[in-house]
């Protein structure tokens, strides 16, 4: 699991995917989120504007695992 530090209270899911370089555009982030490939705290998340906070765990496509710190 890779830990990702954020300096704000939260980051939106689509922005997070761009921050970690898993997607290049907001459109690509939207597509993988809507396809059900992203889990937040072990639950599929279909909200690209989902606010991620310290302690949240994000899984992308069953391959990549991240923790917000």
Provide the descriptors you would attach to this structure in a database record.
five-stranded mixed β-sheet, two-stranded antiparallel ribbon, 7 strands, 69 residues, 30% strand, alpha+beta, Structural Genomics Hypothetical 15.5 Kd Protein In mrcA-pckA Intergenic Region, Chain A, 23% helix, 2 helices
- In DSSP terms (H or I, runs of 4 or more residues), the helix count works out at 2
CATH superfamily label: RNA-binding S4 domain
Q: Strand order of the main beta sheet, please?
A: 1-7-6-3-4
Please state the structural category: alpha+beta
CATH class: Alpha Beta
Relative strand content: 25-35%
What low-confidence regions span 5 or more consecutive residues with pLDDT below 50?
none
What is the CATH fold-level name? Structural Genomics Hypothetical 15.5 Kd Protein In mrcA-pckA Intergenic Region, Chain A
The total count of strands amounts to 7
Looking at the overall shape, the CATH architecture is: Roll
User: What is the CA-atom radius of gyration, in angstroms?
Assistant: 11 Å
Largest β sheet strand count, sense and barrel closure: 5 strands, mixed
**Termini separation:** 12 Å
> What is the helix/strand order?
EEHHEEEEE
Structure write-up:
- The chain has 69 residues and is of the alpha+beta class.
- The protein has one domain (2-68): Structural Genomics Hypothetical 15.5 Kd Protein In mrcA-pckA Intergenic Region, Chain A.
- The chain is 23% helix and 30% strand.
- The mean pLDDT is 95.
């Amino acid at each position: 699991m890779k830990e990702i530090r954020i300096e704000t209270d939260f980051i939106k899911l689509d922005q997070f995917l761009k921050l970690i370089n898993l997607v290049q555009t907001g459109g690509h982030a939207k597509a993988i989120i809507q396809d059900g490939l992203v889990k937040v705290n072990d639950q599929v998340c279909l909200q690209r504007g989902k606010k991620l906070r310290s302690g949240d765990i994000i899984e992308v496509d069953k391959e990549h695992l991240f923790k917000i710190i």
